[in-house]
Amino acid sequence: MEEVSIIGIDLAKRSFQVHGAKADGSVAYRRKLSRGKLLSFLASQPRSTVAMEACASAHYWGREIGALGHEVRLVPPIYVKPFVKRHKNDAADAEAITEAAKRPTMHFVAVKSEAQQAQAMLFHTRDLLVRQRTQTINALRGHLAEYGIVAPQGRARIGQLAGVIEDGDCGLPKVVAELGGLLLGRIEDLDEKIDGLDRQIRTSARECEETARLMTIPGIGPVTALAILAFAPPMESFRRGRDFSAWLGLVPRQHTTGGKPRLGRISKMGQQDLRRLLVTGAMAVVRHAVRRGETTDPWLAGMLARKPKKLVAVALANRTARRVWALATKKETYEVRAAA
What are the E-state strand segments in 35-182? Predict the structure, then answer.
């Protein structure tokens, strides 16, 4: 078999398409392998570069293949698509992955460790339960509103609805009261599970030196700090803070032609969970500053005097992302600078 310099793999559930290319780019072989034969085949190959799309199960295969001595490169799927020739099939996808991975200016995704994936699952599980709780609360509000029973907004006001349902003289049909109690029980069960995950997140954040350092930044709590470690690549892979902010999609979208720069809204590229958490935390800082009527940050005070609150929150999230990069690379804690 011809010696190859790079191997492209189109991942799937059971069937894997392998494309081997020589140093000059010519095709060495094309193989279709089952799940059980992939690692044994790669173990028989000389040490080379193995490229895959950064999709489901890619990090698992990246760790397993890296243990065999190969150099693993994960390519974002959006960067592979331009290299697909005509018809889309597994063989064409594997060849496109190989072509994309050979580009000298290509951006790659870092292979995550098992600990990072465990933290990501913890975050996603909590996020799922929070969304389910919100759906259940909205369902309860909607059903009771059909019978003229309403309560002020907010999860803390659900107790008023519970009092009405538990009251035997509320005038609700028996079936409605029973189903309302079922929804209330579901909300209490979700509250208990979410509180347990929150305690686990806070404990993990306190025990880690890096997350403790990040939590010194205003607008970053245990959930956001843990999510940064779980989803973000090593900060050393970014040359400056703006590159990390651009990876999150918090910088303006550029449309420049003829030497005339045009900047639009934020691009919303990159990791949407981190972007959402940073904007939410920044909005909390903005609301606190507006409620108090003063802030120790002169930049924030000047922005609030000129711009709408939501726009300021996005700008502050961009600034927070740059602070995260600076603290992570310099191994320092955040210090508040008073106005001159």
Answer: 49-53, 71-75
Q: Which of 136, 143, 135 is nearest to 165 (CA)?
A: 143
Secondary structure percentages of the chain, helix, strand, coil, to 5: 55, 10, 30
Tell me the sheet residues that pair with 252.
266
Please measure the distance between the N-terminal and C-terminal CA atoms of the chain and give it in whole angstroms: 71
Instruction: Give the model's pLDDT for residue 270.
Output: 83
Measured CA to CA, the distance from residue 67 to residue 43 in angstroms comes to 10
C-alpha distances out from residue 192 to 125, 206, 229, 274, 337, Å: 14, 21, 25, 25, 40
pLDDT in tens, 238-268: 999 999 999 999 988 888 888 888 888 888 8
Cα–Cα distance measured from residue 244 to residue 288, given in angstroms and rounded to the nearest whole number:
26
Phi-psi sector, 287: left (phi>0), alpha (psi -120 to 50), beta: alpha
Among 18-32, 87-101, 164-178, 223-237, name the one with the lowest average pLDDT.
Answer: 164-178
Mean pLDDT rounded to a whole number for the chain = 90
Report how far residue 85's alpha carbon sits from residue 103's, in angstroms, rounded to the nearest whole number.
Answer: 16
Please, are residues 318 and 250 in contact by the beta-carbon 8 Å criterion?
yes
Average pLDDT over residues 122-137: 95
Residue-level pLDDT at 338: 55
Helix, coil or strand: residue 48:
coil
- Contact yes or no for 46/3 (Cβ under 8 A): yes
